[in-house]
Amino acid sequence: MTTLSAGDGLRTRSPHPGRLAGAAVLAIVVASLGNTLLALIGKAAFSVPDDFKGFQPGAYVFLTVVGIVGASVAWSVIAAKAAKPVDLLRKLAVVIVPVSMLADLALLVTGQSPAGVAVLIVMHVVVGLAAYFTLTRIAPPRPAR
Predict the structure, then answer these.
(1) What is the model's pTM?
(2) Where are the domains of the chain?
(3) Which 3 state secondary structure label does DSSP give 51?
(4) Most confident option among 10-24, 25-39, 41-55
(5) Tally of CA atoms within 13 A in the half-sphere of 48 that contains its CB
(6) Alpha-carbon distance 80 to 49, whole Å?
(7) Tens of pLDDT, residues 63-78
(8) Buried b / exposed e across 107-127, counting CB within 10 Å, b at 16+?
């Protein structure tokens, strides 16, 4: 089986659906575990209040699922349409992940814990990295027919 590199420019098609689903599930599990650890650290090390909504598992796991499902759908389209899909996904992630942090930064205006907001920002990076690496490694683009 030929592995496509990020810069080969060969025409490709969407990843195998089973591999895409598996990559998405793995990314959700890894990111959720990482974010759980970050939430625990935020509460313990930075004295973030227990009622900080961003550290409630229902909030961050839900948003993790939404982000990774969205990234998976985008990856499927990018893999089918882009000449260099891995390069394009990387470039999009570099823009989309910081944009996703804007909602967290807005929490500062409402008087939320700055340390809590900082940890939430790191959580976005965890989700982005989990999505990028699982999607590109486990569900790579398939060669065009």
Answers:
(1) 0.89
(2) 12-138
(3) coil
(4) 25-39
(5) 24
(6) 45
(7) 999 999 999 999 999 9
(8) beeeebbeebbebbeebbbbb
